Amino acid sequence: MNKLAGTGAVVIPAYNEVRSIRDVARRALAQSPLVIVVDDGSTDGTAAELEGLPVFVVSHPRNRGKAASLRSGADEAIRHGATAIVTLDGDGQHCPEDIPLLADAWAAKPGGIIIGSRLHARAEIPPARYWANRFANFWIGWAAGYAIADSQSGFRIYPAALFAKAKVNYDEAHSFVFESEILIEAARLGAFASCVPIGVIYSASARRSHFRPVVDIARIVRMVAWRLLARGLYLRGLVRSLRPIYPRGQNLIRP
Q1: Distance, CA of 32 to CA of 240 (rounded, Å)
Q2: What are the tens digits of pLDDT across the range 140-187?
Q3: What is residue 95's predicted lDDT score, i.e. its pLDDT?
């Protein structure tokens, strides 16, 4: 896995990804010998699609949500000695071949989070999703205290130690809140995110997203509001988050 070889693991949360999971896992194996797929209570035979591939499969007996899947995968990776954890989606939206781009950035900042940023490719992203992500960037950047080019991308590298230190929720109600909350919590702990541009694939034939815009956005907003109120609205964070992000989507500003 480039500069993560020997220390990194790839974690792929999967819920009813029978059409894409084998291809994603196979390509991830070309980047890392340690690939962990978390079958989150799938009912379509997702796990069976992985037969014959040298991947570790963690199975949830019922669907517990993305946050719980990421935690289960991270715990398994840590048991195997991983110090860096790459996460990517199982629906084929992320290209495992971009892992070396994130690994290079990780080598420069191994204590932080590396995010594969998609928002530079505006023409490839459905407009509603693009503007929803920009909206989220503003609020999460405020609560974290610095500008984040793409706060909603699930293609990331985390320091494994962060999962032991971060006080975040992994329950079903926070299924799609975790990836926002971990950025805010990590900043509180002194670990900041850097973004690198990646390719993005939104196929017309892809399965419908598990993200529920009304419910999940409301949950993210509630989490951000609680975090801001707990810090007296954190106006210093707002000012810092309005500083410009450097070209090519790189977050090079540390609060």
Answers
A1: 36
A2: 999 999 999 999 999 999 999 999 999 999 998 888 899 999 999 999
A3: 94
Please say whether the beta carbons of 179 and 152 come within 8 A.
yes
CB 184 within 8 A of CB 190: no
Amino acid identity for residue 190 in this structure: G
Which helix (H) or strand (E) segment is 35 a member of?
A: strand 35-40
pLDDT at position 1 = 56
- The length of the chain is 255
Query: 102 and 116 in contact (C-beta within 8 Å)?
Result: yes
C-beta neighbour count of 201 within 10 angstroms: 13
For residue range 29-47, what is the model confidence (pLDDT) as tens digits?
A: 999 999 999 999 999 999 9
Q: Give this prediction's pTM.
A: 0.88
> In sequence order, what DSSP letters do the residues of 104-133 get, joined into one string?
HHHHH-TTSEEEEE-TT-GGGS-HHHHHHH
* Domains observed in the chain: 2-249 (3.90.550.10)
Element (H, E) at 86: strand 84-87
- Check the CA dihedral 125-180-221-215 and report its sign: positive
